[in-house]
Specification:
This protein is mainly α. Helix content is 59%, strand content 0%. The chain has one domain. The protein has helices at 3-17, 22-33, 38-41, 44-55, 71-86, 95-103, 113-122.
Length: 133
Amino acid sequence: MREYGEVAVRAAELGRAGDTKPPEAWDQAALAVFPRSDSLQEKGCPRGAYLGLCEDGLVAGIPAGTYTRSRDNKRYALRAVELLIAQPSLAEAEPKVLWERVMDGEPKAYNSQMDVVLALWHSGLITLASRHA
């Protein structure tokens, strides 16, 4: 599992285990994974992807709510989940393959958002109930 994927899984576990809100859970998990790097702890793209999934109630055990202002990273993560639902074999590809499908030809640099989505997907932490409601 890639590092930001590890952060996402740890954050989900923290959020599911107690009263820790998703933003604080992400911050705690990022500190644990990147104890010596403020810049890696504060990287916005993977954080926005994770919080966007939480916001829409797609992370198991985390209630939907308002957790991020990142519209783009949330949109990328939600689109990735839609693609994984439609074509589960994408979960076995490299994150950049999923990213290219999400971007659909739009030239934009990859910044670890799919590491978050794929780690949660592989860990069984993506809940699909709210997407089909």
